[in-house]
Amino acid sequence: MNRKLTLILAATLMGGAYASPVRAVEMSEKEKAMTNPYPNDFGPDTLPADLLKTYPANVQTGYAKLIGAKGGCAQCHSAARPLNSRFVEPEGGLDEAKQNAWVAKLKIDQPELFKDGSVWQIETKVWSRYVKRMMNKPGCNLQKADGKAIYEFLSYDSVKRKTGANAAAWAVHRKGLVEQLKTKDPKRFAELQEAKDL
Amino acid sequence: MSYRKAFIVSNALMLAAFVWAFAKDFYAPWRPYQAKYYQMAADVMEKQAAVEKDPTKASNLMAEARKMRHSPMEIKQIIAVDLGRFDRCVTCHVGMDEYTNTTLKNDFTENPYKAHPKVDTALIKAHPFSKFGCTSCHSGQGLATQVEPAHGWVKHWEKPMLKGVTIQGSCVKCHDNFETLKGAEVAAAGKKLFNRHGCQGCHAINGRGGVTSVDLGDIADKPFERISGYNFMRVRIDGKELANEHHDSHWNIQNWILAHLVNDPVEVTPNDPFAHLNSEPISPSGMPDFTKEISRAEADAIVAYLSGMTKEEVIPYRYHVAAAPVKEPALSAVAHGKFVYAKYGCQGCHGLDAKQGRRRFNGSSNAQKPYDEKMSETERYEQMNIGAEPTLPDLMGTYTHEELVKKIEAGVPASDATRWSLKGPMPMVYMPAWRGKISKQELDDLATWLLSIAKKDDSGF
User: Fold this and answer.
1) Interface confidence (ipTM) of the complex
2) Which single residue of A196, B68, B318, B359 has CA 20 to 30 Å from B20?
């Protein structure tokens, strides 16, 4: 009896040992991105419809591609990341000189926009570089035309929502997001602060 | 059995053991070699005596020949005290025993009778046998007196005799200046190749280099317990499998290193990418496939260089020869950046001159098909196997100088990089953080060069 019991127990344990290996939880790129959040990720991932209506048609197309294109941005992060970003690409189209002139004018008109890098990072061609960098990520299936449309939206939107008359509202919004990160993930906050990436 | 009978039987057994021991010694395999050497050497002396016109010299030669012919059979050994070597190689290689063959020269052409082929060179003059023994350069098992064990071609002897150019690895052990040393040209070429192909980007040597993979500063001491026999069985050298014999002359560290250069390393160390045997999938070797980049001769040179990477052998400091400090060339920022890229082994992952990112198993690449659960394991393996490190010119235009510097300083942990299959293994290689390892000037120049090779932007925005 004892022997039988021992055998049954041993078999059960061996079976359990064989069946027990637990695979680590597999994270999608999107989930992975959220394990290292930016303040941007705590904001909304869509724009209000009435604001969007005021944008030119080509810019609205870019927005649609940003939030919807399969094999695009949403593979790795939600649209909240670019929509709540501190990046502002100066007006002036693709002309760097015109962008620089716009920045020079802004420095006179709204000097406060250059004081807090965690709210505004005003930089020539910043969205152009970022969109291209993301498009170069393996597995990104965005075509050049899609990328261009997304870029046009992000650069237009960055000026529209973050500067001029909307600058104060943007500052409140952005500072609130930074504060949220500081409260919810102080370690990550400190990390980004040290890396000057807030 | 009575005590008396037991006593008689045990005496008989003891006698038999003695007889067996004497017989074994009498028929020791080194004896015929030594005997034949004495005969051959005596024959030569007698011939010389026969043609010698000076009767005194002829008589002396004949006396020498007689003495040689009747020399006692003995185990001969060199005791190299400083190096802790007790080498009995000269028991068979009598022509290299300075007590038997005082000139250390002879005309014999076959082993083990011939003299050391380089006896007249500066190399041997600088390394007298009495001081260095044999195995400090040749490796092998100095105390053994049978052919296979003495050459180290037996189980559990992990440092068999070095063959061919690999012996130059021994120069590396003491000569820090081996890169400019006459006679160590192959090992020097090996080091150049090691650095040229970016091995140091992942493999540090004594702490200098990347941390992605093992430090090779003691690779020559790597115990076989750390190499699975099954992995040796996958090795192909010159298209042939190694003999399936554990720890024999083929299963040695030289062939293990060579295996990584003349085979695709994922074949040598396949691991368990589909978690058939483990609870987690484990990526095959992260080492790139160098078979199309490195020739067999070049691979041998790298093996020779790495064969000198030992810490097990305690070599007195006075045996070490220091190298003169190497001055870095004075170059423009762009040229210096390219130099820095090669110096730190970036090409190990991002390819020679950054032209093409190398394989990153289960990393993502644009050449891959989208992941599909329905794919067979073979198809999935193929896709994972074409995962790649970034091809830098494609990306560089999307960074500013400052961003690039930051990126290189911070590195990219493996967990942050994209994977083709989320169910597949974590890639073995990752971008290490170079902060603190690379000077500010080097970093700036590297970023300058990288930005200079950015692909022309044709995106239209």
Assistant:
1) 0.80
2) B68
